[in-house]
Specification:
This protein has five helices and two strands, in the order ββααααα. It is mainly alpha-helical. A hairpin with a 2-residue loop joins β1 and β2. α1 runs antiparallel to α2, α3 packs antiparallel against α5 and α4 runs antiparallel to α5.
Length: 179
């Protein structure tokens, strides 16, 4: 199903969307987790981008598997595939983190009132601690998840470039390779 389109392998086509959307989602979720003003403006965007990333990653992996069946076996390709399949758990975590930033934004919005954006007060009349704790937990999750996603994408991309271009890089200028 995810093999070719117009006689071209789908993988190089889909991977370009993936390498744009996945890091963009990570950036938006990471910033939304640590920057309340940004979170207020982009919480739905964070969730939408991370959900799109969640769709793109399996399509990219499946199209890569289809392409893998068309090219000679290689340790570089196997390494690239192994790294590629490791991205999905990070993207799932990114979706949950995006949801947490959205929840935090809704909670902050609902709690902002006469007491201010500090979360108001609890039932005993004292200051509510949950919003600060929740904000810290969401910020930590957002930073860790966004960093994990970006590092994974860079490693996957580098291994894919090595697999695709290793034979080109090993030939010297002016040399000829047998056909």
């Amino acid at each position: 199903m995810f093999d070719t389109i117009a006689d071209l392998p789908i993988h190089p086509l889909v991977v370009h969307a993936t390498v744009i959307v996945v890091p963009a989602a990570a950036l938006v979720v990471g910033l939304a987790g640590v920057w309340p003003t940004f979170r207020a403006r982009t919480a739905p965007l964070a969730l939408a981008l991370s959900a799109l990333a969640l769709v793109l990653v399996p399509v990219t992996v499946q199209s890569g598997d289809a392409l893998r069946g068309r090219v000679p076996a290689s340790e570089l390709i196997d390494r690239h595939r192994d790294l590629g399949t490791g991205l999905l758990p990070w993207v799932i975590a990114l979706v949950f983190t995006a949801g947490a930033t959205g929840w935090l934004h809704r909670w902050e919005t609902a709690r902002t009132g006469p007491a201010g954006p500090d979360g108001g007060s609890d039932s005993s009349g004292g200051p509510a601690r949950a919003p600060r704790l929740a904000a810290v937990v969401v910020a930590i999750l957002a930073v860790i998840t966004a960093a994990g996603v970006v590092v994974s994408v860079v490693r996957i991309g580098h291994s894919g470039a090595e697999a695709a271009w290793s034979d080109v890089a090993t030939t010297t200028v002016g040399s000829t390779t047998p056909s």
